[in-house]
């Protein structure tokens, strides 16, 4: 039996939460190897997000794409469940952190998860096409498989907008980035192929941001995480606005309107 020395124990404890994300010591804060004092005033929040997730700083064009995707996901009004829950929470005497957390916690596979799912869809098409199945056939096969599992294809169609106003400007940025060899264009091609295959149903914000996140090299689960980061800003703004109104215990409908009673 090996007997651990004090140094062995300290090393094992220190390794328990070993990380390459940050280095924090007395007088030292480094993010992915970059001293914080060198980042402050020179690095935007979007650059910082890229740094924390990719481990390097982005080029200006990469940052432009990521920033546009984040801005596109900031808010969608009080009828979005995450916003509504946060606003109701804000009237219940909780802090902003609780209201934000409550809003974030309702973002699941149905509300908030479509970007991740759509990027998984695009990735399947890209990989199948790269394996030698033609791009058109890969799109047909993958779309058919997804539609067999659900009548909703993530990233396409919108319950509110006939055509999502965020689609065209976001894809326009990607098209210019492809033309300038900033990104390869594989995910843009997959997204446009799906849109053509299921026309006239257009791509929505989740489909457009999935194109961007795929082109920028983010794995599919991070598409959901990045959406949560962006939407948290909208949640914060709505929760703060609700707190300024002073109303207490605000429910989902005005108190003079009663829910329909349906006898069992």
TrEMBL record:
Enzyme class, broadest EC rank: transferase
Pathway in which this enzyme or protein is active: Carbohydrate metabolism; tricarboxylic acid cycle
Gene3D superfamilies: Citrate Synthase, domain 1 (1.10.580.10), Cytochrome P450-Terp, domain 2 (1.10.230.10)
SUPFAM superfamilies linked: Citrate synthase (SSF48256)
Protein family: Belongs to the citrate synthase family.
NCBIfam families xref list: PRK06224.1-1
UniProt-recorded name of the protein: citrate synthase (unknown stereospecificity)
UniProt organism field: Dactylosporangium cerinum
């Amino acid at each position: 039996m090996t007997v651990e020395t004090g140094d062995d124990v300290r090393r094992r404890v220190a390794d328990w939460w070993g990380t390459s994300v940050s280095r924090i010591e007395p007088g030292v804060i480094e993010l992915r190897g970059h001293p914080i004092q060198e980042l402050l005033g020179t690095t935007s929040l979007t650059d910082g997000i890229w740094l924390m997730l990719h481990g390097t700083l982005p080029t200006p064009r990469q940052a432009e794409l990521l920033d546009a995707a984040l801005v596109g996901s900031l808010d969608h009004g009080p009828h979005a469940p995450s916003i509504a829950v946060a606003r109701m929470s804000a009237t219940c005497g909780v802090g902003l952190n609780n209201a934000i957390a409550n809003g974030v916690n309702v973002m699941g596979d149905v509300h908030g998860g479509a970007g991740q799912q759509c990027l998984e869809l695009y990735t399947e098409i890209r990989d199948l096409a790269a394996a030698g199945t033609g791009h058109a056939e890969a799109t047909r096969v993958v779309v058919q498989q997804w539609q067999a599992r659900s009548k909703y294809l993530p990233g396409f169609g919108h319950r509110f907008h006939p055509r999502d106003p965020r689609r065209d400007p976001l894809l326009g940025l990607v098209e210019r980035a492809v033309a300038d060899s900033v990104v390869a264009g594989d995910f843009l091609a997959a997204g446009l192929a799906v849109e053509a295959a299921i026309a006239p149903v257009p791509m929505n914000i989740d489909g457009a941001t999935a194109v961007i996140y795929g082109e920028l090299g983010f794995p599919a689960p991070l598409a959901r995480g990045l959406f949560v980061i962006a939407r948290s800003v909208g949640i914060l703004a709505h929760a703060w606005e609700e707190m300024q109104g002073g109303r207490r215990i605000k429910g989902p409908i005005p108190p003079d309107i009663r829910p329909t009673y349906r006898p069992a």
